[in-house]
Amino acid sequence: MICLGIEGTAHSIGVGIVQQIKNKCRVISNLIKIYKPEQGGIHPREAANHHAMYIADLIMESIKKAKIEAYNIDLVSFSKGPGLGPCLRTAATAARALSLTLDKPIMGVNHCVAHLEIGRGTIENCKDPVLLYTSGANTQVIAFAEGRYRVFGETLDIGIGNCLDKFGRTVGLDFPAGPKIEQLAIKGGNYLDLPYTIKGMDIAFSGLLTASEQYYRNNIRLEDICYSIQETTFAALTEVTERAMAHTEKNEVLLGGGVAANKRLQDMVRKMALERGASFYAPSKDLWIDNGAMIAWLGLLMYNSGNRMKIKDSMINQRFRTDMVDVTWRE
Ligand code: AMP
Ligand code: MG
Predict the structure, then answer these.
(1) What pTM was estimated for this model as a whole?
(2) How far is the CA of 192 from the centre of ligand 2 (A)?
(3) Strand-pair partners of 279
């Protein structure tokens, strides 16, 4: 079976085509266009307009790149949520139009679960990981327990990526600020005290953001602030991930989401895994960022395990929680 998936939860519009070979996922094509606001954060309507402008071409290009014909597609899937309403609706509308045109079934999927499944689907030994999902809007520690992907820990306020981007905006770094903060942090080394907020396995960043902005206003060296933000937030993320691993007795950890690109975060989580005798996994970059292939893959898993969706039920859900999904494709 071949599935075409459309991702459109936030700033990225992506179209991926995948195929199932035995139990693994073969990515045949995976194209992404990213909306960059001229200033400030993501404006949902403008991002949706961007997606509407590119989606038709992306679908055509993706099919061409996959060296298939449109009628070879057996299933169309899309990101049902969570995300920004206008962006989700644009991706879902494109998916409905394609499903009706090709007369092929449609499947709406959970974006966060897709981040986890693409790791399991494409990494050889990744079978039952704890996922540390760190993106712009989302920060969650997710693992499988009793028929569902459960959120063992998550941010109580903003996502880690948003925290980095908001700090970047205050100090004049372009969006997305995460990569720039990473580069500045390499030149820092003087650790500044910042609030370290963990409640059980949950975490919070807004206090740390305010304190970091205060350091900046007090003319503290930017490189040292960036270094301290990374050391503090990443240590907290690693700590809650380790706690979830201990709690669930799992011995694999997987990274997903845009912030997973950060070498310092990768190093901390890898070291924690090593010390526990656990395995560390990160998919390739094009699969850990928001992308259509992960949406296509989860669509296939759901369809092949008996799920069906009618066009009239293919509404989006901005607050689609990870643990609302009935995981029918694994034990
Ligand atoms: P996503 O929402 O998953 O697409 O991820 C986007 C987020 O990842 C933005 O907040 C970026 O600032 C952040 N990001 C991207 N690259 C890096 C990096 N190297 N270090 C830290 N954050 C990053
Ligand atoms: Mg994401």
Answers:
(1) 0.95
(2) 30
(3) 252
- Give the ligand whose atoms come closest to the C-alpha of residue 114: 2
Q: Which residues of 154-181 are buried (b: 16+ CB within 10 A; e: fewer)?
A: bbeebbbbbbbbbbbbebebebbbbbbb
Q: Give the ligand with the smallest distance to the CA of 177.
A: 1
* pLDDT tens figures, 273-285: 999 999 999 999 9
Closest approach atom of ligand 1 to CA 257: 3
* Ligand 1 centroid – CA 35 distance (Å): 14
In sequence order, what DSSP letters do the residues of 122-187 get, joined into one string?
A: HSTT-SSPEEEEE-SS-EEEEEEETTEEEEEEEBSSS-HHHHHHHHHHHHTPPSS-HHHHHHHHHT
Would the CB of 299 count as within 6 Å of ligand 1? no
Cis peptide preceding 179, ω within 30 of 0: no
pLDDT in tens, 298-330: 999 999 999 999 999 999 999 999 999 999 999
Which tokens in the block code for residue 125?
């030994």
CA 125 to ligand 1 centroid distance, Å = 26
> What's the CA gap between 79 and 295, in Å, rounded?
6
Q: Which residue among 164, 165, 233 has the greatest number of ligand 1 atoms within 8 angstroms of its CB, and so is best to mutate?
A: 164
* 290: DSSP letter: S
Beta carbons of 317 and 78 less than 8 angstroms apart: no
